[in-house]
């Protein structure tokens, strides 16, 4: 692994054509009272507007401290914090916090208050009238997938862990803050519910486009949730700051490589969608075609297969040379059935999974109606992986030169 620098890692500038900066940390440090080693040391970081920025790193590296410095739940020992162009290092912390939603792992719902009152905490502080609050609570419960009529009058102990976490997100969104800080928000939840909450949250964020700083120690969660990822080492030192794709394709040093762990290539395939590919043209036939015609197409086929489509252009069977020899049965009854299908929205990892089950070693792409769109072969995936690695290497090569 070449130890070239992440583009401007220590300056903390984003390495891609990033949106404008919403929050700027300028050489921020935190030394807790009674300790000698800073929890965060000289951290300079630009947090882009409207994106999810994930802080990921090993336990104790300073992620939570960094997050809490942003809304001044913890006061920095030195350095400046600039929020939307304004130096907020010394402004009233309450005023700052109203512009920043905060979600934590243990949710922190008030047990003696109903869900409505929990969600309405900040709007009440801001003096909203009751009608506006009721409408907002219902809107937010809807947004996080909970029926307001069922849940608005319940108490936190009457919710499942996943529902409580959704309410935590709704509460953080209540006054529509431009910024959300999320500290391991889905950490204490079982894997299936966690996956669902992550997906729901990504869907909500696609509409809301909040500036989000999201802390996790789980690299897979970072890759899934982050538009950009900051990999942190001890004292919140930036090891690498980049898009998930580039971090996976080009970990900057052994620390990042070890932190990503095994399977980086497969994780990279998880980030690419079938719809973005140039699909491999596979020769197709219809049931009515003569065996001579099919033979002619087979002889032109690189991979020894032609794809038989049904009358609605849906993939039906793979036909190879030896199936053609079976003259006792019509073509649409010979050859293995096509089972390995994916829709354009699927990830390339899904496509690979399908391919491994396919007799023809190909994933067949269909649209919602089942109509054939094209095929993906292992060569297609190899090309994608090479391209991702070459793009990242070029990016870092150019950054190193400049
Ligand atoms: N209130 C405190 N007083 C003294 N030291 C603290 C305090 N809070 C955190 N620390 C120390 O600061 C360092 C960073 O802690 P922090 O909680 O920010 O790390 P983290 O990366 O979020 O860890 P984790 O992933 O385990 O939650 C740790 O060494 C921790 O022991």
From TrEMBL:
Keyword annotations of the record: ATP-binding, CBS domain, Nucleotide-binding, Repeat, Transport
Domain of life where this protein originates: Bacteria
Gene3D superfamilies to which the protein is assigned, alphabetical: CBS-domain, P-loop containing nucleotide triphosphate hydrolases
GO biological process: glycine betaine transport
InterPro entries in the cross-refs: AAA+_ATPase, ABC_transporter-like_ATP-bd, ABC_transporter-like_CS, CBS_dom, CBS_dom_sf, Gly-betaine_transp_ATP-bd, P-loop_NTPase
EC number(s) on file: 7.6.2.9
GO CC aspect terms: membrane
Pfam families: ABC_tran, CBS
GO molecular function: ABC-type quaternary ammonium compound transporting activity; ATP binding; ATP hydrolysis activity
Occurrences of domain ABC transporter (ranges): 23-260
Residue span, CBS domain: 334-392
Family listed: Belongs to the ABC transporter superfamily.
Name recorded for this polypeptide: ABC-type quaternary amine transporter
Naturally occurring in which organism (per UniProt): Euzebya pacifica
